[in-house]
Amino acid sequence: MFSGAQFSLYPMTDEFVPAILRGVAALDAYKDALRRDTDDLSTLLVGPSDTVVRALRDSFIATASGGGHVVMSATLSRGCPGESDDPICAAPALIIPADDADLVTAAVGRFDPGAPSGLDARAQISLYPLGGEGHMARIGACIDFLKAVGVYDKPKHFCSKLRGDASVLFAAIERSFIDFAPAQAHVVLSLTVSVGSPSLR
Amino acid sequence: MFSGAQFSLYPMTDEFVPAILRGVAALDAYKDALRRDTDDLSTLLVGPSDTVVRALRDSFIATASGGGHVVMSATLSRGCPGESDDPICAAPALIIPADDADLVTAAVGRFDPGAPSGLDARAQISLYPLGGEGHMARIGACIDFLKAVGVYDKPKHFCSKLRGDASVLFAAIERSFIDFAPAQAHVVLSLTVSVGSPSLR
Predict the structure, then answer these.
(1) Which residue range(s) make up the domain with B143?
(2) In sequence order, which ranges of chain B are alpha helices (DSSP H)?
(3) ipTM higher than the 0.85 cut
(4) Do B75 and A158 touch (CB under 8 A)?
(5) A77 touches B: beta carbon within 8 Å
């Protein structure tokens, strides 16, 4: 099992370098749980799926708390057959019910929004269960979950738009990534999270 | 058949609004070929797969030519079973050889880098052929194509890093999106294109 993310922070300001570095520094709290590597395009995180999403949340909040228009773009991946097993990725949270009919209920039961960040955010996510039939049903179940926990804003072509406190959105993203395909499946989740867009004023 | 993209431009400057609007204005040249819709997170393009990628190229170049650090993030999708057929998406370019063994050669033959933009770019892309077995072989063929046309920089976890003139990279992305799965398949391609990152100085 291999699990992780490539993510980028885009602060729309002349002072983007310190804003990005603030987001990367927030990852230091996860240095025992996640491996990381940064280049000019993105930062790689490798580790358990739930921990990776929480690290993304903290990184986004650290950068976005400085104000202005800030976007995070990320690709999360687990179970890619092209990646070697890695012990750092062991994820006890990946316990998926055997019966697909229970996916939404199970995800709602595990959803833990935690403490709000105070950041009013918009997001859009796409879930890609790869390597088999039935991916549309899994995507549909994930959308039902997003509606059930109150973060679903509206459908867009190719993705679902979400709205809410940034921490609550990441809590919903964590469950979306983990709960809608078997533990050993190859699953990708693509996300964009934004605060401070002038289009909303 | 439904085909299109959701894309966002991230100019890392206090003057990000006019820079984004310059990229959106470049789409006016495609107003008869593509439908579009912009909200606070992204701009939707709907139309033939090849035209969509060329519009992304022109939009990125229009914004990036202003200088500074500019990133485009996009999700391209075709053949999603959840979308209705749309006549505007008719794409004669989608003629895929029946024999998988010919995929790389066919894509190299169709690759047309066109005139260079003069912008030295870095990119990373991920191809997701959905809804069936054998997706890893298709991804592998796409990587072989990227190497054959000289834009492949190196592997990263979850994506491939590309390097070259921005126009040449988009020409390679066009073939990557179109040529590695059947015409009616559900295919997603995720991309990040960047110029001017201070990490490269």
Answers:
(1) 3-200
(2) 16-25, 49-64, 103-110, 135-148, 166-178
(3) yes
(4) yes
(5) yes
